[in-house]
Amino acid sequence: MIRFESVSKIYPGGFQALKNVSFTIEKGEMIFVAGHSGAGKSTILKLVAGITKPTRGKVFVNQNDLGALSDNELGYLRQHIGIVFQDHKILFDRNVLENVLLPLRIIGYDRKNAERRARMAIEKVGLGGRENAEPQSLSGGEQQRLCVARAVVHQPSLLIADEPSANLDRAYALDIMELFKTFHEVGTTVIVAAHDETLMQNYGHRILRFQEGRFSA
Ligand code: ADP
Ligand code: ADP
């Protein structure tokens, strides 16, 4: 489903975040991206989502060479991707339901359908009953669940998460990993980046380890 071919990424200013990286992720696979801060994890996820472009090499998603797609085509592809960002991006002036249904309204769903799907997503992440809650009344773990609900509300075939448990206590962090597993179990391809590798143990999924922009042992 995803293929990196000799990908290098040099940011404006000259910092080389990725150095000639090649790998493949199969459809339906759940995979972890590990490495210390600055290793290149976010860069990998941004390339997968077409948010940033490789300096050299190619990124393929569903056979599409992302570098060859028009903005429209990239936009269409993104409708099949769910992203949990590191910095939440929760709208604190809207309740849980409104946060989750907004992405659907943006891609053109009518209010009724958007609300039905949003309620399903909220239920799925274990926030059923909290639809009208203000985000600031949620715990850190619940806020992260809200972000997951928003990322999966359009039923993406690919779910990517950047440090989804960065600010959570260990028990909550493991809960979030379990939540991602439930999406993997129904066929979604899931990529989770995190610096804490102990969260990835006991799953038996592949771990892509990075160090200074290269694979490490
Ligand atoms: P990680 O997610 O593993 O912490 P990143 O992919 O975010 O690593 O970053 C890798 C390196 O690239 C870091 O040193 C970071 O400072 C640099 N970097 C990331 N994004 C940018 C950017 N937009 N402009 C310049 N440098 C960047
Ligand atoms: P991460 O560890 O996930 O990369 P950071 O806090 O390093 O998180 O980066 C947060 C955001 O800032 C990212 O979108 C990244 O692309 C951008 N960024 C990181 N380093 C730099 C940099 N040196 N110059 C410009 N933007 C950067």
TrEMBL record:
Annotated GO MF terms: ATP binding
Localization per record: Cell inner membrane; Cell membrane
Family matches, as Pfam families: ABC_tran
Keywords: Amino-acid transport, ATP-binding, Cell cycle, Cell division, Cell membrane, Membrane, Nucleotide-binding, Translocase, Transport
GO biological process terms on file: amino acid transport; cell division
Keyword Cell division tagged: yes
Function: Part of the ABC transporter FtsEX involved in cellular division. Important for assembly or stability of the septal ring.
Oligomeric form and interacting partners: Homodimer. Forms a membrane-associated complex with FtsX.
Protein known as: Cell division ATP-binding protein FtsE
Organism lineage string: Bacteria, Pseudomonadati, Pseudomonadota, Betaproteobacteria, Neisseriales
